[in-house]
Design goal:
Number of strands of chain B: 0
Oligomer: heterodimer
Helix content of chain B: 55-70%
Number of strands of chain A: 18
Structural class of chain B: mainly alpha
Mean pLDDT of chain B: 83
Shape of chain A: elongated
Helix content of chain A: 55-70%
CATH class of the domain at 1-114 and 550-625 in chain A: Alpha Beta
Order of helices and strands of chain B: HHH
Strand content of chain A: 5-15%
Radius of gyration of chain B: 12 Å
Mean pLDDT of chain A: 85
CATH topology of the domain at 1-114 and 550-625 in chain A: Rossmann fold
Radius of gyration of chain A: 43 Å
Largest sheet of chain B: none
Structural class of chain A: alpha+beta
Number of helices of chain A: 23
Distance between the termini of chain B: 12 Å
Shape of chain B: flat
Largest interface: A-B, 27 and 34 residues
Low-confidence stretches of chain A: 289-304
CATH superfamily of the domain at 1-114 and 550-625 in chain A: P-loop containing nucleotide triphosphate hydrolases
CATH architecture of the domain at 1-114 and 550-625 in chain A: 3-Layer(aba) Sandwich
Strand order of the largest sheet of chain A: 2-1-4-5-6
C-alpha cells in the first residue's frame, strides 16, 4: 500500500495544514536543517508506535504532550494528522492536549501491520542495528524470520516449567528429602534400603512376633511405633526419666554448630572477592549509565575504547557463575542451620518433659540454671532464618553443658530403657526414610516432566535456529549485494548475520576485514562504513517485505556518506526498490540536485521546503523543485549569503547538466577537476550551445538562441555579482535578487515548457542526443 | 511437513528421551498446536496449565504410545 498524502495540522513543526503529497510515487524532499522535513517522519512514527522515539525524555511529558503539538498552537485549533493511501482509505488522528489520541480509520492501508524499524530509517538510527545488543537484533529480525509462533511456543514452555517448579514446591521437597537423607545417614550410616528393611523386620519380629501377614514396611513401622510407645508408657517413672534424659543426650548441637561455622567460612572466602568485583562492576555500570544518558556512543572509562556489549555480557555471565557457587554454599549453610534447629527443638522438647523434671531441677539447683533459662527463651524459629556467630557461641557455652550432663546421667540408665530408646530411634528413622519415598517419587515425576518440557523447548529452539539460519543467509546475501553496490571493490567482505552458539535469543553480525574474519563490525569499521552497513541491513530487511508494498522513509541517512557512496545509493534504490515507494528526506542540497537529475521522474517526485521562519507560520513548501528559495530567504538580512547561495546552487546544478550533456572541459589536475564552478560550465555550454542546444521548429531543429542569451546573462551576473557575493561581500539586495532570478531562469532553459521535463532523456542507447520527454528541446552530443 | 506434524514429531522425540504419560504428551501437543503459539501466557494462565500438567503426570499406569497426527 502506497501513500498518497500525509497532512499535518499543528503537529510538530506544522502550523495550518501542510501536506506531503507523493501521490503514490517515490519522493525526494529537500529542506535545510529545521525546515520541518522530519515532522512528516514523526507522524509516521507516532501512528506506528504511539510515541516518537527522539522525544522520549523527561521534558516532553508523560504522553509527549509537551513536544508533539506545535509550541505556538493557538487555543481552539486541533493537533491532527492524516495519512491517505492508494485505495483512498484514510487514517486520521487527533492528539488531545493531554497527549491522548483518537484515531479513525485505524487500519487504513494495513498500517497496523507496519513495523517502524522496517519502515523508517533516520540519521541517528542508521547504525542502531549494529549497535543493538544481540538480543535486540534477534527481536528486530524475528518478525522477518517468520518464527514468532515457534518463539512463543518455546518461551511459553519455559514459563510453564517455572510455574511447575513453583506449584510443585520442588525446591522445598528436595530440601526435605535432603534433611531425611541426613537423618538416615545418622541412624543407618551407609545401609541400603534392603538392609534398613531387614533391621526393621528384625525389630518387628523381636517386639511384635513374625510378620506372617507380609505387612509392608510402613505398616510394620507404624505397628512397631505403637508397640514401643505402649511399652514406654508402662515404664516406671525412673525409666521414663532416663528415657527423657537419653533423648537430651542424643542431641548433638556441637556437630551442627561446626557445620554452620564451616559453611560460614566458605561463604566469607567467596564473598570477599565477589564484593570487590561487584563494587568494580557497580562503578563501571555507574559511569556506563551516565554516558548512556548523554550519548549513544559508549566508551570504556579506562581505555577510551568502545565498550563491547559482548564483553559486558560475558562479565555478567561470569558473575552469575560465581553467584551460583555462592548460592550452593548458602544452601549448605541453611541446611546446617535447619539441622541445628531440629536438634535444638528435640533438646528443648526432651528436657522439658515432665519425666525429666527431677533431673532438670537438680541441674538448675546446680550450675546450669542459666543454661536452662537460655534454652527456655531460645527462639528456634528465628534461628532458622538468621544464626550469627554470637548465637552459635551461646549455644556452645550454654547448651553443650546440658547435653554433657544428660550423657553422664544416661550412662546410669537401665539397659532395657536404652534398648527400647534405640529401637524407637531406628523405627522412627526407617518410617521417615520410607515415607519420604512418596516425596522422592513426586520429585522424580516433576523433574521428569521438567526434563521432558526442557527437551521439547530445546527441540523448538534448535528448529528456530535452523530456520533462522536459512532466512538469515538470504538476508546476508542481500546485505552483501547491497554493500557491493555501495562499496565496489572495498576490502570488507562476507558480511553475514549469524546465531551465536552460546545464546538462544541472539543474532550478531560478522564480516571479513582485509581477509580477517571479525565477530563484530564495531571492531574496525569507520563511522561512515558502519552507517553504510546499517543502511544495507535496513534495506535488506525492507527488501524481505517487498510483497507487502510498504513505503520506506529515509530521513537524512546519507550524512556520513561521501559523494561517491551517495551516488551509489541512488543506483541501489533504483536496482532493488524500483517498485517500492521510497521517501528520501535530505538537507544535502548537492545530493538532492543529484537525485533530481539521476532519478526517473516518471516514478519520482521532487519537492523543496522553504526555510522555517516561525512556529506560527510552520512548514511551507517551495513551489519550485530547485532550491533557490533557500537563497531568497536570506535576501532581507544577508544579501551576500543569498547571492553566494545562488552561485553554489548553479555550481552543483550545472556540473550535473554538463555531465549529462557530455560537455568536454580541459583536464585539471587533482581536486581542481572537482572544483569547477558555474562559470566554467556556462562558458563551455555557451561555446557548444550554438550548435548543440536546439529547439524544435516545425519538422526541424534550430539553435536555441533564446536560451543561450539567458545563459549568457546568468554567466555575466555570476562573474560580476556572484563572485562579489562570495569574496568581497558587497552585493546589495536588488543585485542578489536579480542574480537569483536570472540563475533560476537559466536553469529553467534546460526544462521544456511544453512537457515540463528536463533535457535528460536519451531516446535510445547510442543516441546522438538527450532531450526532454516530448523532444521539443534537445542537446546533441559532441557537435561543437 | 506441516507445522502440526512437526510439533508431534518433537513431542514424540522428547518422549523417547524422557518418557511421560500419554496424558502429558497429548496435553502439550494440543497446547503447542493452539494456545502456546498465540501469545505470551499470563502468570495465572501458566500456573493453571502447570497444575493440569502436574496432575497429568500422575497418570502413570496407562500404556505408552506415540502421538499420531
Amino acid at each position: 500500500m502506497k501513500i498518497k498524502t500525509i497532512s499535518l495540522s499543528w503537529f510538530r513543526g506544522a502550523a495550518d495544514t501542510v501536506c506531503l503529497t507523493p501521490d503514490c510515487k517515490s519522493m525526494a524532499i529537500y529542506g535545510e536543517n529545521g525546515a520541518g522535513k522530519s515532522s512528516f517522519v514523526d507522524a509516521i512514527e507516532y501512528v506506528l508506535n504511539g510515541k516518537i522515539g527522539h522525544l522520549a525524555h523527561e521534558y516532553s511529558g508523560k504522553h509527549q504532550e509537551k513536544a508533539i503539538p506545535n509550541t505556538h498552537k493557538p487555543s481552539g485549533v486541533k493537533t491532527e494528522l492524516s495519512i491517505k493511501f492508494t485505495d483512498d482509505s484514510e487514517l486520521q488522528m487527533e492528539i488531545k492536549p493531554n497527549g491522548s489520541s483518537t484515531i479513525t480509520g485505524p487500519d487504513s492501508g494495513g498500517i497496523s501491520t507496519w513495523d517502524y524499524r522496517r519502515t523508517v530509517l533516520r540519521q541517528n538510527e542508521v547504525a542502531a542495528f549494529i549497535l543493538d545488543t544481540k538480543g535486540d537484533k534477534y527481536s528486530t529480525l524475528l518478525p522477518l524470520l517468520g518464527l514468532e509462533q515457534l518463539e512463543l511456543d518455546a518461551s511459553n514452555l519455559r514459563q510453564l516449567v517455572k510455574s511447575i517448579e513453583q506449584l510443585s514446591k520442588l525446591k522445598e521437597l528436595k530440601g526435605a528429602l535432603k534433611a531425611t537423607q541426613a537423618k538416615r545417614t545418622i541412624i543407618f550410616g551407609a545401609d541400603t534400603n534392603a538392609q534398613i528393611i531387614q533391621k526393621i523386620q528384625n525389630l518387628y519380629t523381636k517386639h511384635c512376633g513374625p510378620n506372617d501377614d507380609m505387612k509392608d514396611i510402613l505398616s510394620c513401622c507404624k505397628e512397631l511405633e505403637l508397640f514401643l510407645d505402649t511399652a514406654i508408657a508402662h515404664f516406671s517413672s525412673d525409666q521414663k526419666r532416663y528415657m527423657a534424659i537419653h533423648g537430651v543426650a542424643e542431641a548433638n548441637p556441637k556437630d551442627h554448630v561446626k557445620a554452620i561455622r564451616d559453611a560460614s567460612i566458605k561463604l566469607a572466602e567467596s564473598t570477599e572477592p565477589l564484593i570487590t568485583e561487584r563494587l568494580e562492576v557497580l562503578e563501571s555500570a555507574g559511569i556506563f549509565a551516565e554516558k548512556l544518558g548523554a550519548s549513544i556512543e559508549l566508551h570504556c572509562p579506562a581505555c577510551g575504547q568502545s565498550i563491547a556489549v559482548d564483553a559486558f555480557q560475558s562479565h555478567v555471565t561470569d558473575e552469575r557463575k560465581r553467584l551460583q557457587i555462592i548460592i550452593k554454599t548458602f544452601e549448605s549453610r541453611k541446611t546446617a542451620m535447619g539441622a541445628l534447629c531440629d536438634c535444638l527443638g528435640s533438646l528443648k522438647s526432651n528436657s522439658g518433659k515432665a519425666d525429666a523434671k527431677s533431673w532438670r531441677d537438680e541441674l538448675i539447683m546446680g550450675n546450669l540454671a542459666g543454661s536452662f533459662a537460655y534454652l527456655d527463651k531460645l527462639d528456634i524459629q528465628a534461628l532458622r532464618n538468621s544464626c550469627t556467630d554470637a548465637e552459635l557461641s551461646n549455644i556452645e557455652s550454654k547448651l553443650l553443658p546440658i547435653v554433657e550432663a544428660a550423657v553422664q546421667a544416661s550412662r546410669k540408665a537401665p539397659a532395657e530403657t536404652l534398648v527400647l530408646s534405640a529401637d524407637k530411634g531406628v523405627v522412627e528413622g526407617g518410617k521417615a526414610v520410607f515415607a519420604a519415598q512418596e516425596q522422592a517419587d513426586t520429585v522424580a515425576r516433576t523433574e521428569g516432566l521438567i526434563l521432558f518440557m526442557n527437551t521439547l523447548e530445546q527441540g523448538i529452539r534448535d528448529e528456530i535456529k535452523r530456520r533462522a539460519k536459512s532466512v538469515m543467509n538470504e538476508i546476508s546475501a542481500d546485505i552483501r549485494g547491497m554493500w557491493s553496490i555501495l562499496h565496489p571493490s572495498e576490502t570488507i567482505e562476507d558480511v553475514s548475520l549469524y546465531l551465536p552458539e552460546d545464546a538462544d535469543k541472539a543474532i550478531d553480525i560478522s564480516l571479513k576485514f582485509h581477509g580477517v574474519t571479525l565477530e563484530s563490525p564495531r571492531l574496525t569499521l569507520s563511522e561512515g562504513n558502519r552507517n553504510s552497513l546499517g543502511l544495507c541491513i535496513f534495506l535488506a530487511m525492507a527488501k524481505r517485505e517487498a510483497d507487502k508494498d510498504r513505503p520506506l522513509f529515509l530521513d537524512d541517512v546519507v550524512v556520513s556518506l561521501d559523494r561517491n557512496h551517495r551516488g551509489m545509493l541512488v543506483e541501489l534504490l533504483e536496482k532493488e526498490f524500483a517498485n517500492r515507494q521510497v521517501v528520501i528526506l535530505t538537507h544535502e542540497r548537492e545530493w538532492y540536485v543529484e537525485l533530481r537529475h539521476m532519478l526517473d521522474n516518471k516514478n519520482w517526485k521532487f519537492q523543496a521546503l522553504l526555510p522555517y521562519i516561525t512556529p506560527d507560520i510552520g512548514i511551507r513548501w517551495s513551489n519550485r523543485t530547485t532550491t533557490f528559495d533557500d537563497a531568497r530567504a536570506q535576501l532581507i538580512d544577508r544579501p551576500d549569503s543569498a547571492g553566494n547561495d545562488a552561485r553554489k546552487i548553479m555550481d552543483v546544478e550545472l556540473s550535473l547538466i554538463a555531465e549529462g550533456f557530455h560537455i568536454r572541459l580541459p583536464y585539471l589536475r587533482g581536486e581542481k577537476n572537482d572544483r569547477r564552478m558555474a562559470h566554467d560550465f556556462l562558458e563551455r555550454l555557451l561555446a557548444d550551445g550554438a550548435k548543440c542546444f536546439q529547439k524544435r521548429e516545425g519538422q526541424t531543429y534550430i539553435a536555441h538562441n533564446d536560451a543561450l542569451t539567458i545563459l549568457e546573462q546568468a554567466d555575466r551576473l555570476l562573474v560580476a555579482w556572484g563572485n562579489r557575493a562570495s569574496h568581497s561581500f558587497d552585493v546589495v539586495r536588488p543585485e542578489a535578487e536579480k542574480l537569483i532570478d536570472v540563475c533560476e531562469k537559466a536553469l529553467d532553459q534546460f526544462r521544456c515548457e511544453s512537457c515540463k521535463k528536463s533535457v535528460w532523456f536519451a531516446e535510445a542507447e547510442g543516441s546522438e542526443w538527450v532531450q526532454c520527454q516530448c523532444g521539443n528541446i534537445r542537446w546533441r552530443y559532441g557537435k561543437a | 511437513m506441516s507445522e502440526i506434524a512437526w510439533i508431534m514429531e518433537q513431542v514424540n522425540a522428547a518422549k523417547k528421551i524422557y518418557p511421560v504419560p500419554n496424558a502429558v504428551s497429548k496435553r502439550l501437543t494440543e497446547l503447542l498446536k493452539d494456545k502456546l503459539s498465540l501469545r505470551q501466557l499470563t502468570t495465572a494462565e501458566a500456573s493453571t496449565l502447570a497444575g493440569i500438567l502436574i496432575l497429568d503426570m500422575a497418570h502413570v499406569n496407562e500404556p505408552d504410545s506415540e502421538e499420531k497426527p
